[in-house]
Design a protein that fits this description.
single chain, alpha+beta, NADH Oxidase, five-stranded antiparallel sheet, three-stranded antiparallel sheet, 8 helices, 10 strands, about 40% helix, globular
């Protein structure tokens, strides 16, 4: 298993990433919001310890039943993900998180009762989690090296027809518990909340493609935001 603790510099987060997550698109917020965001980003980065972990394993994909069987577990991943994983010869499971330190700061901001700061911090946390997952993909690419193998897009429980409850099967597969310090509630909510989990397919004949949002009806999916801003 690959396990890594990152620094804010590793994530390469820009103000534009944060503004887009806040809903500004290509626009720039007013001066007061910019100043508030900069100050809060600095405060967050001073305590931030994002983490990632991933492992690679064999598996069997049944595209007729839309099932992925791994380590004695059968994941009902849905037709969209099953189609995107076709041709995979192995599978990488991952968890990426903004970390407990960030979540404690979120709780502190809630106690302070400043709704603007709470909103900005929530946006920053979402960016941190996704950027940490991006670094995870780079770690995976380093692992594949010059083997000629590639990886698919990453897919998470709760999206594209894969029910979030199957995280209850996914998490125990990691050799270290709790993986990356992330735990699950009975309703499969991750803690810290700003965390991402999922799977990627690996093999010489798979590729990473632009997300095909036209195939999915999940309106609040963050990938739709990525498509809109391109």
């Amino acid at each position: 298993m690959i396990k890594k603790e990152l620094t804010p510099a590793d994530l390469g987060i820009t103000p534009r990433d944060i503004y887009e997550q806040m809903g500004y698109g290509d626009a720039t917020p007013d001066a007061r919001t910019v100043a508030e965001t900069e100050a809060l980003t600095e405060r967050i980065f001073s305590i931030l310890r994002p983490r990632l972990c991933l492992f690679v394993t064999d598996g069997r994909l049944d595209t007729d039943a839309n099932m992925l069987s791994v380590m004695g577990r059968d994941f009902s991943i849905g037709k969209i993900i099953a189609r995107q994983l076709r041709g995979s010869e192995r599978y990488a499971f991952f968890i990426a998180t903004a970390g407990a330190e960030f979540e404690r700061l979120q709780h502190q901001l809630k106690e302070e009762g400043d709704m603007v700061k709470i909103f900005i911090a929530d946006s920053i946390g979402s960016v941190i989690a996704e950027k940490t997952a991006d670094v995870m993909e780079k770690e995976l690419e380093n692992l594949l090296g010059s083997s000629g193998w590639h990886h698919t897009n990453r897919f998470s429980p709760g999206y594209c027809g894969w029910h979030v409850s199957e995280q209850q099967m996914l998490f125990p597969m990691f050799p270290e518990q709790p993986p990356c310090g992330v735990t699950l509630s009975e309703s499969s909510l991750m803690s810290p909340i700003k965390s991402v989990s999922g799977v990627l397919g690996l093999g010489p004949d798979v590729r990473k493609y632009p997300y095909s949002c036209g195939l999915c009806d999940l309106k609040q999916c963050y990938k739709r935001k990525i498509i809109k801003k391109k």
